[in-house]
Amino acid sequence: MSHSRLDATAAALDLIAKLKDGHGNLMFHQSGGCCDGSAPMCFPAGEFKIGAADVLLGHIAGCPFYMSAAQFEYWQHTHLTLDVTPGRGASFSLEIPEGVRFIIRSRLFSDAELHDLAPVRTGAL
Predict the structure, then answer these.
(1) Whole-structure pTM over 0.85, yes or no?
(2) Which residues contact 123 (CB under 8 A, 6 or more apart)?
(3) Residue 93 to residue 84: CA distance in whole angstroms
(4) Taking a C-beta distance cutoff of 8 angstroms, is the pair 89, 39 a contact?
(5) 64-75: pLDDT as tens digits
(6) Nearest to 117 by CA among 60, 38, 39, 58
(7) What distance in Å separates the CA atoms of residue 99 and residue 70, rounded to the nearest whole number?
(8) Which domain of life is it from (predicted)?
(9) Beta strand 40-44 with 78-86: parallel, antiparallel or unpaired?
(10) Is the Cα dihedral 21, 27, 30, 32 positive or negative?
């Protein structure tokens, strides 16, 4: 069984469910430095243009989660956990009007996990 590159806290999953109720299907893209620095951005599905070099890391609550290939070079050895924190970010992400923002908590994969990761794919679904 391969290890996932992504996880989410209960708070993040609750917020995703709320955002889905208001916006329909969603997608995430891990920002590479714009606005809030490196922050997970949530959009209505298809609103953010996925390029051929964007890496699909997996899905959270049925939502695809992407990162640029250049950023993935730095983060490929890292497990990401999507979480929520109080406060408004300076981004275009859907959660901002809720008075919270998505954040990433990370840890390095163990050697065993690294050997058991599924390959990533690039480009849109």
Answers:
(1) yes
(2) 50, 51, 52, 53, 54, 56
(3) 12
(4) yes
(5) 999 999 899 999
(6) 58
(7) 30
(8) Bacteria
(9) unpaired
(10) negative
Query: What 3-state DSSP class applies to 119?
Result: coil
Structure tokens of 124?
Answer: 């849109």
What's the token pair of residue 118?
A: 């599924």
Contacts (Cβ under 8 Å, ≥6 apart) of 10: none
Q: What is the pairing mode between strands 54-60 and 6-8?
A: unpaired
What residues are paired with 40 via a beta bridge?
30
C-beta separation of 72 from 120 below 8 A? yes
End-to-end CA distance of the chain: 23
pLDDT digits (tens, 9 = 90+) for 1-17: 578 999 999 999 999 99
Residue found by looking up tokens 């300076």 in the block: 90
**Mind listing the domains of the chain with CATH numbers?**
6-118 (2.60.300.12)
Which residue do the tokens 């995703």 mark? 16
